[in-house]
Design goal:
Mean pLDDT: 83
Structural class: alpha+beta
Number of strands: 8
Distance between the termini: 70 Å
Strand content: 35-45%
């Protein structure tokens, strides 16, 4: 019995549990009015800078979806790495200068995060 107890105490401890995977970054923006509805949803690493070209930078497995209803017009955009689909009133279109101007207008209307604090000296 003593040998058995010594063998148990010499066994290495079990490995620690694997850490939880990092939470997926998500952001949702909704603006509703009688004239216009806008829904913007992002998943994963999505960076937006409306003054840059391209305006949107997507990380691996990231997604940006923008939906807008303005009067009778409905616009829908989905961006994933390497693919952009854009439709107006259910008809898919090439994402051209008109589409980029629309996206810039919609993204510029979103609330911006506060600037980083200024250092105090």
């Amino acid at each position: 019995m003593l040998v058995f107890a010594v063998l148990l105490s010499a066994a290495p401890p079990p490995p620690p549990p694997a850490p939880d995977p990092p939470a997926e970054k998500t952001a949702d923006f909704h603006r509703h009015s009688p004239e216009r509805d806008v829904v913007v949803q992002s998943r994963g690493d999505v960076a937006v800078d409306v003054d840059s070209d391209p305006m949107v930078s997507l990380g691996v497995n990231s997604r940006l979806e923008v939906q807008e209803r303005e009067g009778r017009t409905r616009r829908h955009l989905v961006m994933t790495p390497g693919r952009t689909t854009w439709s107006v009133n259910g008809h898919e279109r090439k994402f051209d200068a008109e589409g980029r101007a629309w996206l810039k207008r919609v993204l510029a209307s979103m609330p911006q995060p506060p600037p980083p604090p200024r250092p105090t000296h």
